[in-house]
Amino acid sequence: LAHMGKNIVACGGPGTGQVAKICNNLVLAISMVGVCEASNLGAKLGIDSKVLAGIFNTSTARCWSSDSYNPVPGVGPATVPSSNAYEGGFGSQLMLKDLGLAAEAARDVGAPIPLGAEAHAVYQILVANGLGKKDFSVVYKFLGGDVSNSKA
Q1: Is residue 31 within 8 Å of 53, Cβ to Cβ?
Q2: Catalytic positions, please?
Q3: Alpha helices, H only, the chain
């Protein structure tokens, strides 16, 4: 396991590692959609994207989706997918798969996940529009109306 990642956490009995993975990716998808929505809104209202990201990253909106993996091209490091036409990274189709697993698990135990359901719907639309192989942060461009039919 040490070759696959730096954080190895014993989660409990069999299957709890998968539980942790789908719960973590559920939060990640929700936070990414939120950062994308707010960043698009800010841009359309005229604030510089770097200024807005700086505010997010030093206040209550701070999260990994903004401070380490910003979905706005040119705002994050040159190594993040948004700075590389959303190539590389974690594909939208993989996020859709994980959100489907979370939705199924939630149904099985009667746990409501309304924001998860909304994020799941967003990623279904991305994949249906040919963006499944693009990084999951491509939702920024899609929500801004800048991509469709596999173009980024």
Answers
A1: no
A2: 21
A3: 16-44, 49-57, 64-67, 92-109, 114-128, 139-143
The mean per-residue pLDDT over the stretch 101-111 comes to 97
Kindly report the backbone phi and psi dihedral angles of residue 10, in degrees, each rounded to the nearest multiple of 5, phi listed first. Answer: -75, 120
Cα separation of 42 and 36, whole Å? Answer: 10
Q: What average pLDDT does the segment 12-20 reach?
A: 82
Query: Which residues have C-beta within 8 Å of that of residue 81, sequence separation ≥ 6?
Result: 69, 87, 88, 89, 134, 135, 137, 138
Whether the model clears a pTM of 0.70, i.e. scores above it, the answer is yes
Residue 112, token pair as written in the block: 């409501």
Distance from C-alpha of 51 to C-alpha of 69, rounded to nearest angstrom = 16
